Amino acid sequence: MTIKIGDKLPEGTLSEFIEVETEGCSLGPNTFNVQDLTKGKTIAIFGLPGAYTPTCSAKHVPGYVQHADELKAKGVDEIWCIAVNDAFVMGAWGRDQKATGIVRFMADGNASYSKALGLDADFSKFGMGTRSQRYSLLAVDGVVKQLNIEEGGKFEVSNAETLLGQL
């Protein structure tokens, strides 16, 4: 079943590569509980098929980096990029996209969170296995307030500009 507006985000975990060790976060991949991270916060989340893929790298991520200050000015506490890749790849991709400290690159290595959202997709014909659909959502205190799911192969409604206009 696909998540919809008004639903609570499903329980689950995502991993993030931490560049600088802090209290409670060691250097390298760290696993976080989504319920804990979203409690009391407004989170803009966008999901995409994979790190370093053409549309994701050229359009999807850059839009959220470019509009991060505007999103935050409208009440967004954090921006997350979720993809079915490991935390090492997501960390490297975030650095390449110059998104460190702007967008959190959250790894869904086995697609379990994408499946829990009902937003997984079969990319086997491209040699990529199970991935995430392309989407954006706004979660307030863990509840979905906006949801934009792309039609297969499209990039029209999950961009930063659309989500910004919905705030």
From TrEMBL:
E.C. code: 1.11.1.27
GO BP term, pick one: hydrogen peroxide catabolic process
Domain Thioredoxin: 3-167
InterPro entries, per the entry: PRX5-like, Redoxin, Thioredoxin-like_sf, Thioredoxin_domain
An example Gene Ontology CC term for this record: cytoplasm
Superkingdom of this protein's organism: Bacteria
PROSITE patterns: THIOREDOXIN_2
Enzyme class: oxidoreductase
Keywords: Antioxidant, Oxidoreductase, Peroxidase, Redox-active center
Catalytic activity: a hydroperoxide + 2 glutathione = an alcohol + glutathione disulfide + H2O
Any one GO MF annotation of this record: thioredoxin peroxidase activity
One Pfam entry name: Redoxin
Active-site positions on this chain: 56 (cysteine sulfenic acid (-soh) intermediate)
Known function: Thiol-specific peroxidase that catalyzes the reduction of hydrogen peroxide and organic hydroperoxides to water and alcohols, respectively. Plays a role in cell protection against oxidative stress by detoxifying peroxides.
Family indicated by similarity: Belongs to the peroxiredoxin family. Prx5 subfamily.
Protein name: Glutathione-dependent peroxiredoxin
Provenance organism: Duganella callida
